[in-house]
Hints:
2 copies of one chain form a homodimer. In chain A, 43% of the residues lie in helices and 23% in strands. Chain A has 2 domains: 6-148, Jelly Rolls (Sandwich), CATH 2.60.120; 153-230, Arc Repressor Mutant, subunit A. Chain A has 235 residues and is of the alpha+beta class. Chain A contains 9 helices and 11 strands. In chain A, a hairpin with a 2-residue loop joins strand 10 (211-214) and strand 11. In chain A, the strands form 3 sheets. The first copy, chain A, has a 4-stranded antiparallel sheet with strand order 1-8-3-6. A 4-stranded antiparallel sheet of chain A has the order 2-7-4-5. In chain A, helix 6 (154-168) crosses helix 7, helix 6 (154-168) packs across helix 9 (223-230) and helix 7 crosses helix 8 (195-207). Chains A and B meet through helix 5 of A and helix 5 of B. The structure holds a DNA duplex (30 and 30 nucleotides).
Amino acid sequence: MDNHDPEIVEIIRHVAVLHDAADEDLQTIAGMSIRRAVEDGGYFFLQGDKAEYLYILASGRAKLCMISADGQQVNLRTLIPNQLFGALGAIQPGAVYPACAQALQDSTALAIASADFRNLVTKRPHLSFGLMELMTGYIQEMQERYRELATERVEQRVARALLRLAAQSGQKIERGGITLPFSRQDLAEMTGTTLYTVSRYLSRWEKKGMITTGRELITLIEPHALVRVADDLAK
Amino acid sequence: MDNHDPEIVEIIRHVAVLHDAADEDLQTIAGMSIRRAVEDGGYFFLQGDKAEYLYILASGRAKLCMISADGQQVNLRTLIPNQLFGALGAIQPGAVYPACAQALQDSTALAIASADFRNLVTKRPHLSFGLMELMTGYIQEMQERYRELATERVEQRVARALLRLAAQSGQKIERGGITLPFSRQDLAEMTGTTLYTVSRYLSRWEKKGMITTGRELITLIEPHALVRVADDLAK
DNA sequence: CGCTCTATTGACTTCGTTCAACAAGCGTGG
DNA sequence: CCACGCTTGTTGAACGAAGTCAATAGAGCG
């Protein structure tokens, strides 16, 4: 508990869930955490593993995904540094992860034993408010995406996914657009379709000058045109 | 706070979220709650309303649903008595409901002011664990349904919806099957399809003897046959 | 009895998937 | 440095699942 690595404390301080935690608590959490590195394509945990740790992404990029019985991947969420994930076990002792967490680049995360964190929350109950905010936000996002999947056409969903990624992965809005490092396959997993269909729409949009594309790279040139597509106002 | 209506306390005692709340807390909550009746088809709240109350269904049946821009309904969850819903505002002051809650029969619920409940949770922090369990359970269900919607065909999803409703609405498994009070339209909203498609599959299953149907009524005769369909093992 | 709401079914259309062939980018090792 | 191979992306053609539209049939209620 006397591990007060200032860098770790700094990472933890920027986790949204802990925005109003006392400095003392941040130190405590830092003391409980272990650094874990996972290389590109590797997993922090797999669907079905016992949820013994919760994680905070420190560097790199990762995704939370589920794999269906027939092997198809569904992408639930893209993770960026300072986001907490895999917190389920901190709430329900003995739970298993309902999804897997895969690194999209070489990444590092802080791992905290679920049981330790649960004890801390018991002693410091105000921490649970941050957790509950995280969860309600996540619930709302999932509900919204569920509605989209149930009611919108693929074209709209892909446009929306690009806009959402642009907003959260928060790349600089340089002149020339917002660049996103995702493949056709990634987009397909996020929107519940196939890479072929994604490729067709991206090609069409590129011809119209709304975006430019490269290998595992999409640059939004006219985001407002995508908004029109997402809202089905396209002619 | 001295309203200790024993019937209300009894309802509150059976809310899963509060399973390990102290008797004293149950009494307090009972004292904060107001009974609200909503008739068939009416709303407890609408999507976008300020989330000033949370509810516990006392009698009847209701659904949580979202309405998309073009008017299509998406059914997120079917509510049965003793379930808590609309709790978002208890976590995030000033939030608006992301979905609406509509009665499917004449129903009553206990309404508790979000602010009052939030204060109570602050004073009695162990209550937050029940809330977090509720939320993690809900997140897992949403993730699972999202995966289904993204990867499975309509036939599988309808079969799964029937099995899920049978499991949770927990009708007695009498000889002769499990009877569910849902229309084709309800099923369609739950599975992200149209009433026509639902009707076609139900007809087909009825011809095979797997179910019987009536007006707003479906009886599962051979649930295991539906399991095979849901898992895509059907010939 | 007639009105309304729910359900059925056929015909047709559309969207999206699947399959296959091919092109282009990128890294590696000879 | 180039050739090779692997991965990613493109595009056409055919197919199939599900949506749409329309006509009709029952069920239940006042």
